[in-house]
From TrEMBL:
It catalyses: L-methionyl-tRNA(fMet) + (6R)-10-formyltetrahydrofolate = N-formyl-L-methionyl-tRNA(fMet) + (6S)-5,6,7,8-tetrahydrofolate + H(+). This is Methionyl-tRNA formyltransferase. The keyword Glycoprotein does not apply. Residues 204-304 form the Formyl transferase C-terminal domain. One of its GO terms (molecular function) is methionyl-tRNA formyltransferase activity. Residues 1-176 form the Formyl transferase N-terminal domain.
Length: 318
């Protein structure tokens, strides 16, 4: 049986490795084009490309999967099944109709909740206590296809998007291994999604990263975790971007509320930077001032002055 695998970030690598470990015939890998990264804009291949080349697999990198040329290139591979995991583009109907066993997707949420490109981050940002992976048949809509199998995982206060990406990528690969035999045998039981229960997880924007200090301490805590270690949540300090990578909500937050405006620094010492939020204090633990590396708040305060009463979030040029 011939399988074409489609994926891009690190999340997809365990699923590709699972297929090879279980001796499935992966005839090619389709991934996004190399993109410039970092300050030097170095052209960098996606993790799935690096993995595929290390396994000696052919790699296709079309700019637009909807183009006739891209669809034709996949058709020439004569796949029986297409497996995708965080590929990053919606597949056209012409592509979905190529494999006789269909196209399946390893999606990082408990569908129909969090359809879209940022399900893991938004699950954490929204304060969900659990998430998971759904393996589904792909349809023309955005993550609307029938569900085949599901696994659920808890989200703890210690989790960030980074830790959940790793956990879910492994859980997704394991679920793929358990699900494939029934798909190949034609015995998979597909369950339609309840569209009325659907929620969406669009890709994150700069506005999603900006902290609104009038929100609750818990909401900001979740925002910071959901954006770490990728983009990072940010505010402003003296008109410059001030990123926050880790923070903590004191117990009995409401009782810790100070008589101060939202975003006001109440205290700054070795325990962290305490900031007034909409319902109490939030303690900033790991920060990144403009032009500097990420460090603990305690480390930064050894060489910087941050007086009580300083207002964060006063805006500035980015």
């Amino acid at each position: 049986m011939r399988i074409v695998f489609m994926g891009t970030p690190e999340f997809a690598v365990p699923s590709l490795r699972l297929l090879l470990d279980q001796n499935y015939n992966v005839v090619a890998v389709v991934t996004q084009p190399d993109r410039p990264k970092g300050r030097k804009k170095t052209l960098t291949p996606p993790p799935v490309k690096e993995a595929a080349l290390s396994f000696g697999l052919p790699v296709l990198q079309p700019e637009r999967m909807r183009s006739a040329e891209a669809v034709a290139a996949v058709a020439e591979l004569h796949p029986d099944l297409i497996v995708t995991a965080a590929y990053g583009q919606i597949l056209p109907k012409a592509l979905l109709e190529i494999p006789r066993l269909g196209c399946i997707n390893v999606h990082g949420s408990l569908l129909p909740k969090y359809r879209g490109g940022a399900p893991i981050q938004r699950s954490i940002i929204n304060g969900e206590r659990s998430t998971g992976v759904t393996i589904m048949y792909m349809a023309e809509g955005l993550d609307t296809g029938d569900m085949i199998s599901v696994v659920e995982l808890p989200i703890t206060d210690e989790d960030t998007s980074g830790t959940m990406f790793e956990k879910l990528s492994i859980a997704g690969a394991e679920l793929l291994g358990k699900t494939l035999p029934s798909i190949i045998a034609g015995e998979a039981k597909a369950v339609p999604q309840q569209d009325d229960l659907a929620t969406y997880a669009p890709n994150l924007t700069r506005d999603d990263e900006r902290i609104d200090w009038s929100k609750s301490a818990r909401a900001i805590f979740n925002q910071v975790r959901g954006l770490s270690p990728m983009a990072g949540a940010f505010t402003y300090l003296n008109g410059e971007v001030f990123k926050i990578w880790a923070c903590a909500v004191p117990s009995e937050t409401a009782s810790n509320k100070a008589n101060a405006d939202f975003g006001t620094v109440v205290s700054a010492d070795s325990s962290g930077i305490k900031v007034q939020t909409g319902d109490g204090l939030l303690v900033l633990k790991e920060i990144q001032p403009a032009g500097k590396r990420t460090m603990t708040a305690a480390e930064w305060l050894k060489g910087a002055r941050l007086e009580a009463g300083t207002l964060l979030g006063d805006g500035g040029a980015e």
